[in-house]
Specification:
alpha/beta; Rossmann fold; Methionyl-tRNA Fmet Formyltransferase, Chain A, domain 2; 2 domains; 7-stranded mixed sheet; 8 helices; 15 strands; 24% strand
């Protein structure tokens, strides 16, 4: 940024490590983070220990003023935002803001989203992109408006998705890309060198939705072709996790391989298993898929061959009727 331009006063909103990277990047920029908003502390685990967000931990380390409101519309929180007197709000991986919040700053409220909007608009863009077998993803900065993820686009950065990347791998890539993009966006706003482009102007008709995912969404449909099943498993890892059933119990699948089917492996119906020295193969809609890493209920994740060594029940079918 040009040294003659006054730095922006920023209030940052975020919670997980994905947001922490952006906060640290902004703190290392020429702009001034005058306040941080993150989720309230919560109790977790069997011991009900209090856990804090990655953004809170970073804000405390950096000595930044902080708020953890239970209610975003509370008068006390709105007063705090007004006292911080920010030029712009920056949002990364935070809950939906009410207009009484995002409408406060003079330059608006900027969000960074983990996709090339308007494609994969929604709460889980990273998982959906990998599960769809996409070869590219990216990050987008945009102005927050009333409807979620629909505001005018400011800047975008593309990112390759490697053939074996999981959603977790892409998450890390986009975390760093998003941090840099937020700083670039603030630099451009500070000098008036950027204007938003309405997402309606970017629509192609090929956009894919990315709704929030729940545990049940990770169930594998073995009737799909093996590439689609393989991509789905990559996209669900590590959350919400791809799963099927084995002898009536939940069976989580962490990794598969598109290795060529050996001649020793017969054609298999959807979900049907073949096990032996050549590995654990599962039938799909077109060709068997090699199982690499999985997890029995109540057990840690293990290599497929290690599971087979200790499993005392038949391994004939995953799921029921291919699902």
């Amino acid at each position: 940024m040009n040294d003659s331009v006054s730095p922006l006063r920023i209030v940052f909103f975020g919670t997980p490590d994905f947001a922490e990277a952006a906060l640290r990047a902004l703190e290392n920029s020429q702009h001034e983070v005058v306040g941080v908003v993150t989720a309230p502390d919560k109790r977790a685990g069997r011991g009900h220990k209090i856990t804090t967000s990655a953004v809170k931990d970073a804000a405390m380390e950096l000595g930044l003023p902080m708020a953890q409101p239970d209610r975003l519309k509370s008068p006390g929180f709105i007063s705090q935002l007004n006292r911080w007197n920010a030029d712009v709000f920056c949002v990364v991986a935070f809950r939906m803001l009410p207009e009484v919040v995002w409408g406060l700053p003079s330059l608006g409220t900027v969000n960074v989203h983990g996709s090339i909007l308007p494609d994969f608009r929604g709460a889980a863009p990273i998982q959906h992109a990998v599960a769809a077998g996409a070869s590219r993803s990216g990050v987008t900065s945009f102005f927050i408006t009333q409807e979620i993820d629909t505001g005018s686009v400011l800047l975008q950065r593309g990112c390759e998705i490697a053939p074996e990347d999981t959603a977790g791998d892409l998450y890390v890539k986009l975390m760093h890309e998003g941090a840099g993009l937020m700083v670039d966006t603030m630099d451009a706003l500070a000098v008036g060198a950027i204007q938003g482009i309405a997402q309606d102007q970017l629509l192609t008709g090929q956009e894919r939705p990315a709704p929030k995912l729940f545990r049940q969404d990770g169930r594998i449909d073995w009737r799909k072709d093996r590439q689609a099943v393989h991509d789905f498993i990559r996209g669900m890892h590590p959350f919400p996790g791809a799963w099927s059933t084995l002898n009536g119990a939940t069976f989580k699948i962490h990794a598969t391989s598109l290795s060529e089917q050996p001649t020793s492996v017969p054609d298999l119906a959807a979900g049907q298993c073949h096990t032996g020295a050549d590995g654990w193969w599962v039938g799909t809609g077109d060709a068997p898929l090699l199982l690499k890493t999985a997890q029995l209920a109540g057990k840690p994740a293990m290599a497929a061959e290690d599971i087979l060594r200790g499993y005392r029940y038949p391994v004939d079918q995953l799921g029921s009727m291919g699902f």
